[in-house]
């Protein structure tokens, strides 16, 4: 587990490109038969990837958490961006196919990740935040019908088509984990897909002082990239982000991007509240 400390906006405005990438960008999240985790001091989020190929991967606490098991004091959200897979949680097998998700509450002890086909392995992307109580396990199905009592289909109001080709931001927002659909202590997650010809996400942009956010960009060929914009609204910076790389966004920072082609990204948030619309919009003419 890699540790990342918090950064002040007063300091970040003086970072060069190399330092920005060291502080906020995370590469190599999906390594065959490994779990890669990043612990950020910003709201104590942990995020990372598990890519089981030839063996099952067990999620363990590690010395960094000073816990008996990973979810002793935490909750966990997972979205699979690879091939079909299985997550075993306390003796129950949850089939998590491509673009499906899973929420595991505080107190879940034994967690393992597996792929159904080693030639097309699952890529489980996860976000975790501290938890004060236990909420039930939920499997989130993106495009399938519910089969079991732990299944959740994404509600119509949480699957929104927004933007337009004229504004280069025609996209579909899939809200996986948030109040009213999957109850959590503080964690929220979702997946946004931009249609061909559209490249802009989260524009007009915003900040939200009561939550931090992590973006995982994916669905891009090797030679494509997203120019991710961050920083205070009047002190913006940019970072080149490539396929399956993640970037940390502190609460004081905008988080917006424009790609060399269309792409998808997963957003994960933790913080003081779960009000999705609690954000401070930034007028386009005010950006610097």
Q: Would you identify the CATH architecture? A: Sandwich
CATH topology: Jelly Rolls
Evaluate the radius of gyration.
Answer: 18 Å
Strand order of the largest sheet: 1-3-4-11-6-9-12-13
- Broad CATH class: Mainly Beta
Strand % is 35-45%
By DSSP (H or I, 4+ residues per run), the number of helices equals 2
* Average pLDDT number: 96
Which consecutive residue ranges, at least 5 long each, have pLDDT under 50?
none
Give the CA-based shape: globular
Helical residues, percent: under 10%
Biggest sheet character: 8 strands, mixed
Domain unit count:
1
Tally of DSSP β-strands: 25
The helix-strand sequence is EHHEEEEEEEEEEEEEEEEEEEEEEEE
The N- and C-terminal alpha carbons lie at a distance of 35 Å
Write the CATH homologous superfamily.
Jelly Rolls
* SSE class: mainly beta
Describe this structure in words.
With 288 residues, this protein is mostly beta strands. It has one domain: Jelly Rolls, CATH 2.60.120. The chain has two helices and 25 strands. The strands form five sheets. Strands 1-3-4-11-6-9-12-13 form an eight-stranded mixed sheet, with no helix packed on it. Strands 2-22-19-24-16-15-14 form a seven-stranded antiparallel sheet. The longest helix is centred in the first third of the chain and has 8 residues, at 17-24. The chain is globular, with a radius of gyration of 18 Å. The mean pLDDT is 96. Keywords: Isomerase, Metal-binding, Zinc. This is 4-deoxy-L-threo-5-hexosulose-uronate ketol-isomerase. Belongs to the KduI family. Catalyzes the isomerization of 5-dehydro-4-deoxy-D-glucuronate to 3-deoxy-D-glycero-2,5-hexodiulosonate.
């Amino acid at each position: 587990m890699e540790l990342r400390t918090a950064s002040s906006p007063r300091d970040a405005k003086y970072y060069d490109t190399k330092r920005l990438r060291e502080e906020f960008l995370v590469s190599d999240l999906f390594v065959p038969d490994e779990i890669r985790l990043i612990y950020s001091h910003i709201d104590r989020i942990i995020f990372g990837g598990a890519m089981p190929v030839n063996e099952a991967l067990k999620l363990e606490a590690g010395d960094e958490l000073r816990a008996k098991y990973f979810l002793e004091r935490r909750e966990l959200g997972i979205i699979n961006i690879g091939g079909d897979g299985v997550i075993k949680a306390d003796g129950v097998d949850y089939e998590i196919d491509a673009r499906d998700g899973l929420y595991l509450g505080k107190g879940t002890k034994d967690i393992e990740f597996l792929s159904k086909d080693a030639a097309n392995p699952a890529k489980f992307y996860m976000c975790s935040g501290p938890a004060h109580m236990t909420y039930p396990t939920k499997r989130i199905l993106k495009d399938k019908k519910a089969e079991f009592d732990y299944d959740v289909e994404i509600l119509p109001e949480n699957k929104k088509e927004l933007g337009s080709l004229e504004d280069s931001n025609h996209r579909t927002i899939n809200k996986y984990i948030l109040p009213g659909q999957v109850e959590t202590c503080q964690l929220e997650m979702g997946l946004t897909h931009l249609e061909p010809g559209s490249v802009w996400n989260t524009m007009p942009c915003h900040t939200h002082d009561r939550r931090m956010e992590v973006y995982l960009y994916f669905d891009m060929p090797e030679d494509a990239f997203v120019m991710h914009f961050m920083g205070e609204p009047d002190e913006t910076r940019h970072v080149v982000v490539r396929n399956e790389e993640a970037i940390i966004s502190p609460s004081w920072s905008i988080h917006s991007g424009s790609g060399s082609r269309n792409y998808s990204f997963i957003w994960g948030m933790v913080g003081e509240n779960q009000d999705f619309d609690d954000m401070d919009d930034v007028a386009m003419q005010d950006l610097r």
